[in-house]
Amino acid sequence: MSDYVLELKAITKEFPGVKALDNVHFNLKAGEIHALMGENGAGKSTFIKVITGVHLPNKGDVYLNGEKVVFHNPKEATKVGIAAIYQHVTNYPDLSVTENIFMGHEKIKKSTRKIQWKEMHADAKALLESLGSDLNPKTEMGSLSVAKQQIVEIAKALSANAKIIIMDEPTAALTHRESEELYKITERLRDEGVAIIFISHRFEDMYRLADRVTVLRDSQYIGTWDVDGISNDKLVVAMVGREIKQLFPEKQVLIDEELLRVEKLGQAGMFKDISFTLHKGEILGITGLVGAGRSELCQALFGIEPYDEGAVYFEGEKVTIKTPADAVNLGIGYLPEDRQTQSLILQWSISQNITLSSLDKISHKGWLNNQEERKMSKTLAEQVGVKTNSIFNLASSLSGGNQQKVAVAKLLTKDLKVLIFDEPTKGVDIGARSSIYQIMIDLASEGYGIIMISSEMPEVIGLSDRIAVMCEGRITRFLDKDQATQEAILEAAMSKQTSKSQVV
Amino acid sequence: MMESNLIRYVSKFRELGLLGFIIILAIVIQFLNPAFLTLGNLSDMLKNTAILCILALGMMLVLVTRGIDLSIGATLALSGMITALTVSAYPGLSPFLAILLGIIVGSACGVILGLLVSKVGILPIIASLGLMNAFRGMTFWVGGGDWVSAYQMPDSFKGIATSNILGINTLVFIAIIIFLFFYYFVNNTITGRQIYALGSNPDSAKISGINANKVYMLVYTLMGGLSGLAGVLWVSKFASSQGDTASGYELTVIAACILGGVSINGGVGKVIGVLLGAFLLGVLDNGLPLINVSPFWQMGIEGVIILVAVLFNTEIKKKVEKNNRLRRVI
Amino acid sequence: MSTRTINNVQNFSWKRFMLQWEWMLIALIIIIFIVNSSISPYFLNFTSISDATMTFLDKAFIVFPMVMIMIMREIDISVGSTVALASVVMATTFNAGLPMELAIVVCLLVGALCGFFNGFLLVKYRELSAVIVTLSTMILYRGIAYMILEDQSSGGFPSWFSYFGWGYIGPIPFILLLFVILAIGFALLLHKTVFGRQVYAIGSNTTASRFSGVKVDRIKLIVFTLAGVMAAITAIFLTARMGSTRPNVANMYELDVIAMVALGGISTAGGKGKMLGAILAVFVIGYLQYGLGLINIPAQMLLIVIGVLLIASVTVTNLRVKGKFKTSSKSDSKEKVS
Hints:
The structure holds 3 protein chains of 3 kinds.
Chain A (H helix, E strand, L loop, with lengths): L5 E10 L2 E11 L4 E5 L6 H8 L7 E6 L2 E3 L4 H6 L2 E4 L11 H6 L14 H14 L15 H14 L4 E5 L7 H16 L3 E5 L3 H7 L2 E6 L2 E7 L5 H9 L3 H4 L10 E10 L3 E9 L3 E6 L5 H8 L7 E6 L2 E3 L4 H7 L1 E4 L3 H5 L6 H6 L7 E2 L2 E2 L1 H15 L15 H13 L5 E5 L7 H16 L3 E5 L3 H7 L2 E6 L2 E7 L5 H9 L10
Parallel strand pairs in A: 3-8, 3-9, 6-7, 7-8, 13-20, 13-21, 16-19, 19-20
Antiparallel strand pairs in A: 1-2, 1-4, 4-5, 9-10, 11-12, 11-14, 14-15, 17-18, 21-22
Chain B lengths: L1 H11 L1 H19 L6 H26 L7 H18 L5 H26 L3 H19 L12 H8 L1 E2 L2 E2 H19 L1 H11 L1 H6 L4 H27 L10 H11 L11 H20 L4 H32 L4
Antiparallel strand pairs in B: 1-2
Helix pairs in contact in B: 1-2, 1-14, 2-13, 3-8, 3-11, 3-12, 3-13, 4-5, 4-6, 4-11, 5-6, 5-11, 7-11, 8-9, 9-11, 12-13
Chain C lengths: L13 H5 L2 H19 L6 H12 L5 H9 L7 H17 L4 H25 L5 H20 L4 E2 L7 H4 L1 E2 L2 E2 H19 L1 H11 L1 H6 L4 H27 L1 E2 L7 H11 L11 H20 L4 H26 L14
Antiparallel strand pairs in C: 1-4, 2-3
Helix pairs in contact in C: 2-14, 3-14, 4-10, 4-12, 4-13, 4-14, 5-6, 5-7, 5-12, 6-7, 6-12, 9-10, 13-14, 13-15, 14-15
């Protein structure tokens, strides 16, 4: 018998054009919570998919209890007791909780192959109760909150007799209280002998739960440490690859007159009482946990989902923003969080993507002018430094970082004054990251006011002139550049309102 | 709060609402013309609705997988035509074999569509549109452009629609059997649930090890088989088969499903709901002429009801979502 | 910032030029012409061709907006009913004493209204699919047509009205002339204007378009209204050629039109296809029909040919798309089987 329930040796996984995993090692003991850390795009997700049989590695071996195994599909991995709870909830919203729990291993009567609903409902209820939840198993999955769906996913893993459970950023969309509950459940599972791989880029999660931590960076294995045996700074260096300071260009602070003022902005169920100001040349960081209402706030400012209460002043004048077109006409631009679905048209050329939001500039009386389109997109693509040889290449041919540059170039076609960047470096590799930071700083020094939403602590601290921390729909604290530390931000992001009013 | 509870109630018990609407409609019609709720008229109505029910049940599964099948009217016509030609050539053929023949022809049509959707990856709406044309053309072709009319069909064949089994009209009996089969299949078998799982979230279904292509093949073949069956019943009932039999009927079937609460976005659809949806159309078809509504107004009234049902549904759904959001605490 | 220069001159590529679906359709038309003329010596004769063209062009007007609708990843199956309703209202208002000129205007208005209503529902209820909305209005519009005319037919139009059906301008049928003018107009609108570019953007990625400030709702409204107007134009030509109208005219036109558009290489997955392809597809199907008529094959047989042609063409385009976008497997067509 091996010491390890699961061991991966020298795993390499290649996709056309990219090495998603390069010689990665990993091992897992029974009854252990093992944190897997790394920045977005470090290869964590691919790594899990190798363990769960979604991807077959190109090189390397997987050992289960010392024996070599090969999973050709997810079902084979499930059979031997490996279950995964994915970051994006991957359940069946239209089906009941019970069905979600038992999907793939339903209880049936042997003779008639009839599904045994009564037994399944009862088992589901018992399982949920063992996890401290009083959910009705007949409820439709899609009507539950994300936190409750996570619990159902865990129940699903347990019902499949999982001995190894992989949790992929399970706390990402949870509130502080909900995370706390999840921690407890996770610890209970560990005490019962289940081995858990916990993926997160929140240090909080790791310190609270994990026994050991393995770090991946740029698709490579960096190392494994006991959590007690590694300092915070060392871990950051392991994840980021260099001191944070090197990554962020120096910014000349030249905070100028007021551009945007928001007073008591609110949207039912999403955010409330939001007030802040933004000046010319300033970068205002907005951070907080996912689900704190940051993206919703900025989408309201951009007119995608209009706000219900409060007021917005642009250059001192009160304005109403109901559609993205309103926002753009005022001079507010938005770089969406998900560039593949919200920002770019992947099957279009770089050129067409760049000009999409300002077709009026390359047309006369509605007729497109190809010459001007080429000229404009060439200029802007060069300005943001897209690595490509022709503006006619498809956006889908670019790497994540270069796609993001194209998305930024789109914003520059307009006469904007305020730019909202929603998670600008999500899924962008380190190299392209610093050039996006450079672009943002250059834009600020040209006089743009920039609002940057980000969950990446280092970039919030490294770039922002001021930081607004949100928690459960409210701004809990403003921090100036010199006050900003990881601890201060985390504390504000986890703090709860003392006087909580019902919004109904 | 009162209102939000009501909304949740309505959204949960959609079928009850539909049933209530049918009952109110029936009472109104009965009030205006007492001939409505008589045994003779009701059995007439059931007979007329049976074929629609059979087809709507099959269509429900197709819609649940996020698909659509526009070819069923043509499949129905083709299998009806082939069966009618066969029984007119071999009058001694047992009605049971005639039905079987229709089902086989229909299933073959369904298999072709299933292959196009699952293996070739053509969007169901386009694939079934193409096949609709092809099957319709083939119906004219095998029929030589002529009708097969009542005098060419043996009495045993025409008897399918008029005979009784256990005191119930055969058409209705078959519809009941199929309804029971679907009820069991959809709720109590793994395959049945996989259809819903696939429609609810195709990506997760892959991870759960559900063979999507197999499910697509199954639902389209089933749909084809039911259309074939319906074709035989149709031809027997109307005692004629022609090139344009049931032309455009696929849209009535889809309308019954939509009325019954089947979502075109997949994953949602109840057997009872579909049955009630078909019933509602049946009651309208049967009842409106009884209360002297011109038959020419029927289509318009149906259109209004379908549109209102669709919009009502969406409004309810929107309200539920908004309520869920409002209940969140900030 | 970076000083790298990026090329912005697109070289002409023969491969790309020849790999267009439209060549396939042109080849089909040529084959049909060759076969037709070898079967019947009367085919390659100017009058017979222009006569043939007149008979299949009426529904082709709806093809123009349908191309845009399908590029936007929507569909409109109510257009056949809109033709019927517009035609019935035109005939009824005329017979109620309205001058024919005004009746034609009413017809256009009814068409526009029907289309606008579809668009309005779709924009107001974004979560509703176009299949459901236009299926409902398909039943509704034809239902209203039946309410108005019941099983009667209505006609008795002034003689000049038949000009729409049978008139010539010089040697060219009026309908063909109008078709060509509108075809050029719509092709320019789709391929050369901001509006057209935005139509493609909506079909390729609606969210990204909205986030880029494209007025998605307004464009959808306009295009669906255009579909109604074109259906009304079809109604005018159809009614003029038949001399009278009934509520059941233009039955299943929507499916014929969708088939033409799909054969023209416009994918229902959205964002792809050209106006020219659909226009060529109109002629492929039209001349095919005419040719089959020449050799006394019943018109219904054409259905088989159209069906097979449609499926074959979609299969071929599918394979082409798969080959082209190997890298972006995530947004593959499979996901959109809906």
